[in-house]
Records
---
Amino acid sequence: MKNCLKCNYARWNLTKTGRLSPTGEGHCTKAVERPILPNAFYWIGCPSAGGGSIHRKTEYQMDCPFYEERKA
């Protein structure tokens, strides 16, 4: 899916009354883990994933590999 509207991992910002915020902003809650390396390899430094901000009006160029349809 090229947007996060119905994704299970999408957590949208809400107003004080519990409605979707008019800003359209939210956060992706998918936990990203470092891949396991063979014994002959090692990490140089400490790689970490950044970002996670999402927006209801954003249409991404590619489908998200972690998209999971939210169950009603």
---
Amino acid sequence: MAAFWYFDNEQYTWGDFQIDSDVQCIPSGKFQWGFSSEACLVFFCLNVLWATGTFSVWVHMNRKSELCQKGRQLGKYRAVVDLAEAIRYDLGNDICAYSEKELDRELAKLSGVKYGVSYMDSICHIELSSKADSEALKLRYGDVYGRGQKRVWP
């Protein structure tokens, strides 16, 4: 099945466009648009590389992370609670009174955050904090993490 193109009520085939002397670009006064298949190929390849890299980092973190190895999966609510707790620790209990600009300004003054373990009254507490004195994250099987008596990990 051959492809046909129509222009000014005349039919053209692919062979008509192969003869250089028969093909001319004539301005018609109308806007014509298009896209480059080469540019699409480049963007597609870059997108595949980015997606592969992102997926690789995600797999690596889920296999090598101290938290994941001990069974603490980071979901959307766990991440929000950890971050809110870190902000409350650094800015105090009255963070509800801060405006968006004030929060942005105060949080920009802080250094990065990291997970750590602190010990209060023989209870281990996993925290996300910007304080430098928190112990490095090293979880132990069988320890109680949090205020409740539930054992988080076997």
---
Amino acid sequence: MAQSLTGTLTYTGGVITLSPLTRATGTYATYFLPCEPNQQIFRHHIPGTDGNIVVLGGRMGQVLRIGVMSIGVDVATAIGAITDELDDMASSDVAVVICGSTWLRCHLRSCTASKPARPVGPNLAAAEFDFVFDYDD
């Protein structure tokens, strides 16, 4: 049996709860891809030598990618469950809690539809989105 992703996206003005995947109305996470943390890198060239001295200055942030599926009673409801939240989410810090880890001070970089919204069963329609967040470490 496959494991489901659960979590929350909390921001000023609301929260999106990512529930275990079922074939019922709700919002679900379909994938979670935290990218490798960005490092602050300084390169110093010493005159008269070949190459550089490289100094790592520490973590600067990270990109988080989350697939979100919204299921509603019709296509408009499934799309609206996500798009109605985007204005508030884009204008505030977002706390991403998923897979047992927490990332505070995330900023919504983009939200795009990953597939056309479509019916998935009697009185059920799904809309899938790709969320990309910048995490400020």
---
Amino acid sequence: MPDLQKFKITALSAANVNVPRAAIEGQICDSTTGAVLHDFTGANALTFPGVLTTLTAAQRQVLVERLATWLLMVKGGFE
């Protein structure tokens, strides 16, 4: 796996863009017991990109960092 170096994200002003909306559903379960810990199905589904407004600034930063590294790998042909 290639190493990412000289990685930097510079905050810019907000942008208004049209993106596809999507419903995100799933359950988070205990891997040992199978018990449902959080149910995000049906009425509890998350709607993207609307769910982004529910994140804290720190959570949005983590999202950008994870997305940025993935984008760099995709554009570099490693994903």
